[in-house]
Write a structure and sequence with these properties.
This protein is α/β, with parallel strands linked by helices. It folds into two domains: 70 residues, 2-Layer Sandwich (60s Ribosomal Protein L30, Chain: A); 159 residues, SPOUT methyltransferase, trefoil knot domain (Alpha/beta knot). The protein contains ten helices and ten strands. The strands form two sheets. A six-stranded parallel sheet has the order 7-6-5-9-8-10, sandwiched between helices. The radius of gyration is 19 Å and the shape is elongated.
C-alpha cells in the first residue's frame, strides 16, 4: 500500500506551505500535493519553489495522514523551526513588541493569535513551557503561515515578565475591567499579556503588569474570545504608531 513519508513536523494547507517556502526559516523534506489540484496561484508557487520536493499523490493519501482534517490538498514534511530565547529576541530588537499568552488551551486561539501577530508586527509570542499549546499542526494551519515568521518561544511566563520588566518594557495585561486601550500610549516597547480562555489573567501575572487594558463592550456582552481581544489590542498599537507617523 502506498504511503507518505512524514518523519518531521507536519504542515497542512497551501498558505502554511507557501509561507514556509518563502520565509526559508526551516528546511522542507517532502511536499505532497493532491494530484487533482488545479494550478492556482499558490499551487503554482509551491510547484515552482518546491521543485524536486513536490510529489503528486492521490487525495485519499493526504486525507489518511492529515492531523487537522483541513489540508487543502497540500501536506509537507518539515524540519522543526529554529528555537529562539527571549534574550535573543530582546538583543535583536531595541524596541520590541512582545505578546505573552498564558494557559491558552485551544489550538485555534493560539493559531489565530500568531496570524494577527504577524500582521501587527509582533517580534515574538511567548507561551509557557508546561501550560498551553505549542506549534501543533492545527496551530500552524490556523496561523496560515504566521508561525513561520513570528517566533514562538516556550519559556515561563513569570520569568519572562521579570526579564521584560528589567529591560524597562511596558507590560500591559488584558482583562475585562481594564481601561480602554486608546487611553494608554502603546507606541514604545511593549509586552501584551493575555490569560487563558476561562481564567483570564492569574493574580501573579496581573501583579506584574504596569496597566490593565480592556475592550469596552456593548450589548451586555461580558467578554470576547481571547484571540479577538489580542487582535484588537495588537492593532490598536499599530493604529497609534500610524497616527504618530511611524
Amino acid at each position: 500500500m502506498e504511503s507518505l513519508k512524514l518523519s518531521g513536523e507536519v504542515l497542512e494547507g497551501r498558505n502554511v506551505v507557501v509561507e514556509a517556502l518563502r520565509r526559508k526559516r526551516r528546511a522542507l523534506r517532502h511536499i505532497y500535493l493532491d494530484d487533482a489540484a488545479k494550478a492556482d496561484e499558490k499551487v503554482t508557487e509551491i510547484i515552482e519553489k518546491g521543485g524536486k520536493l513536490v510529489r503528486r499523490v492521490p487525495r485519499h493519501l493526504l486525507d489518511r495522514v492529515s492531523q487537522t482534517g483541513v489540508h487543502n490538498g497540500v501536506i509537507a514534511d518539515a524540519d522543526p523551526l529554529p528555537e529562539l530565547s527571549l534574550r535573543e529576541v530582546l538583543a535583536a530588537n531595541p524596541d520590541p513588541f512582545l505578546v505573552l499568552v498564558d494557559e491558552v488551551q485551544y489550538e485555534h486561539n493560539l493559531g489565530a493569535i500568531l496570524r494577527s501577530a504577524l500582521g501587527a508586527g509582533v517580534d515574538a509570542v511567548i507561551v509557557p513551557v508546561q501550560r498551553g499549546k505549542g506549534l501543533s499542526p492545527v496551530v500552524q494551519r490556523v496561523s496560515m503561515g504566521g508561525a513561520e515568521a513570528v517566533p514562538l518561544i516556550r519559556e515561563g511566563i513569570s520569568s519572562s515578565l521579570a526579564e521584560i520588566r528589567r529591560q524597562g518594557i511596558l507590560v500591559v495585561g488584558a482583562d475585562m475591567d481594564g481601561v480602554p486601550p486608546w487611553e494608554v500610549d502603546l507606541t514604545g516597547p511593549v509586552a501584551m499579556v493575555f490569560g487563558g480562555e476561562d481564567k483570564g489573567l492569574t493574580d501573579p501575572v496581573r501583579k506584574r503588569c504596569d496597566v490593565i487594558l480592556g475592550v469596552p463592550l456593548l450589548g451586555n456582552l461580558e467578554s470576547l474570545n481571547v484571540s479577538v481581544t489580542a487582535a484588537l489590542l495588537m492593532f490598536e498599537r499599530q493604529r497609534q504608531l500610524r497616527q504618530r507617523g511611524d
